[in-house]
Design a protein that fits this description.
The complex is a heterodimer of chains A (106) and B (153). Chain A has 106 residues and is mostly helical. Chain A has one domain. In chain A, 80% of the residues lie in helices and 0% in strands. In chain A, helix 1 runs parallel beside helix 4. Chain B has one domain: Four Helix Bundle (Hemerythrin (Met), subunit A), CATH 1.20.120. In chain B, 86% of the residues lie in helices and 0% in strands. In chain B, helix 2 runs antiparallel to helix 4. The longest helix of chain B has 40 residues. Chain B is elongated, with a radius of gyration of 18 Å. Classes of the chains: A mainly alpha (106), B mainly alpha (153). The interface between A and B is large, with 38 and 33 residues.
Chain lengths: 106, 153
């Protein structure tokens, strides 16, 4: 008989990936539309794109760890279907925000 | 030297794509005998992607401004304003997915259908995004080429 369910870190980093993907898209819009955000990111590391990468990868690592500590260290509980749905929705939303912004919003 | 750096970026990007495809096919045919290989190849995916990303980052920060100026003055300014702008931000999604692949592949794949489905979806998204990045890269290179050709005519 097959086992079911996915591991704690598969769920926690999967959810963090979905969250960071959407944040990635929103940060693109924010830095392109708000000069102060772009200037701040430029100042942070000397290049806005490096700052962008550091912020988003930092969010991915931080939330992956945080979600894994939920429920007294057991992590967030979720079915594989819901995890896959969240992953695909997060990546698609983040990607479409970026594509849509540079296609029509910029 | 700059050209070699750029080609190393492309080479590691393609290596990431190939190893991900390998993981996808191996997971479709998973057994106790290939589980170790799946884990190694998914780690290779993450390593190749990080190398491609770091090399590209170095090239983008120190060398790309010259190409950008050529593209924007040439007949294909969209090679920068759309293709490079989307590539430099979508690649962060690809990097996170490639980093996540070995985490998802660490489970007991032969015995766990749910774990296999997660790996297949993640690998599928890595392949799609990696193909998009390769296409974007081709458009950017063509933008530089037509910009240079226009300057000579």
């Amino acid at each position: 008989m097959e086992n079911t369910g996915v591991s704690k870190y598969t769920i926690s980093f999967g959810l963090a990936l979905a969250l960071a993907s959407v944040a990635n898209g929103l940060l693109v819009v924010a830095k392109e539309k708000i000069p102060a955000v772009l200037a701040g990111m430029q100042q942070l590391t000397g290049n806005h794109w490096i700052s962008h990468g550091v912020i988003i990868l930092g969010l991915f690592a931080l939330f992956g760890w945080l979600f894994g500590q939920a429920n007294g260290g057991q992590g967030i509980k979720m079915t594989a279907n819901r995890l896959i749905g969240a992953l695909v929705a997060g990546v698609a939303t983040g990607g479409l925000i970026i594509l849509g912004f540079y296609l029509i919003g910029d | 030297m700059n050209e070699l750096v750029l080609m190393a970026h492309v080479m590691f990007g393609v290596a990431c794509l190939v190893t991900t495809l390998w993981v996808f096919v191996d997971v479709l045919n998973v057994s106790e005998s290939n589980q170790g290989r799946i884990r190694k190849m998914s780690c290779a995916t993450a390593i190749f992607m990080w190398l491609a990303f770091l090399i590209a980052g170095y090239w983008y920060v120190f060398s790309y401004p010259v190409d950008k100026a050529i593209i924007l003055k040439g007949p294909w300014p969209f090679a920068h304003s759309f293709f490079m702008e989307t590539k430099e931000h979508l690649v962060i999604l690809l990097l996170m997915l490639a980093t996540y692949l070995p985490i998802a592949a660490a489970g007991n794949l032969p015995a766990n259908q749910d774990a296999r489905r997660v790996v297949l979806w993640v690998a599928g998204m890595v392949v799609l995004l990696a193909l998009m990045m390769e296409g974007d890269g081709a458009m950017i290179a063509m933008g530089v080429k037509v910009g240079l050709l226009a300057g000579h005519n």
